[in-house]
Amino acid sequence: MDKFIEVILENKIYLILTIVTLVIITVSVSFNSFKKTKNKSIKIVQKNNIVNGNMAGRDIRK
What we know:
89% of the residues lie in helices and 0% in strands. It is mainly α. The protein has one domain.
């Protein structure tokens, strides 16, 4: 086990690189999923506005 830790300490650069790449991957994936959900919510709002606009545009008294 001590030898394993020594190898990790010797290869600090690789360890840092792998951690950085993992962080970048997770951030990009979470950002993409957030963008998709944001677009969906905007589309839903636009649909609701269109429906409400049609309903409001009709004259009830006719």
